[in-house]
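Q: I'm writing up a methods section and want to include an example of the input and output format. Could you take the sequence below and give the corresponding predicted structure tokens, formatted cleanly so I can copy it straight into the document?
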Amino acid sequence: MIVLHQFSPNWGLPNASPFCMKLETYLRMAEIPHTLVYEDTLDKAPKKKMPYIEDGDRKIGDSNLVIEYLIGKYGDRTDEHLSPSDRGISLAMRRMIDENLYWCMVYSRWMDESGWAITKPAYFGTLPPVLKQILPGILRKGVQKNLDAHGMGRHSDGEIYSIGSRDLVALSGFLSDKPFFFGDRPTLLDAAAHATVRNFLDVPIEGPLKQKAHQLENLVSFSNRMTERFYPG
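A: Here is the clean output for your methods example:
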């Protein structure tokens, strides 16, 4: 039995981390038996980040590496019908989501003052008083360093939100009027896109990226379709 370790749910989402939510969605899509363990410290995580899985005595971190491991063990249950061309497109789109759009989301939550005003109590509100005063600022500085190292943090607010909006428009354009990105069957790209889009639609942080996501009606319908199918009730 696969044990999926991830952050505790927040804001009414299955997970406020798109990487955690992507992996949980994939496990549901691939119908791989699993149990969930929620933990909000990274002490036991093999790469010091969430999510990770335990499979017997093995621990595997990083959502993409976990999925590769699961495909190797259980077979490709989501993308086996895709052509080599479609697989290339899927990988490129997932890289855009994970390596670009995600960092726009991080900026909106951690560095934009209006987003931080909502993120800080949601993530740190249950800490003991002393830690609540110290830890958020320390972690925020670490996030800023990561954003700067990536390059996203070196842009202005307007530039970052323009970058993220173009990524959302690209997803919407590729989805077009299809129920899922490659037709009638959801694939790994659908899991990745749903996890990120839902994290814009439902998180109570108002701003250009949430506004853009809601304007793209086919993305909203797609994400609702994924929720109804894989997170009923």
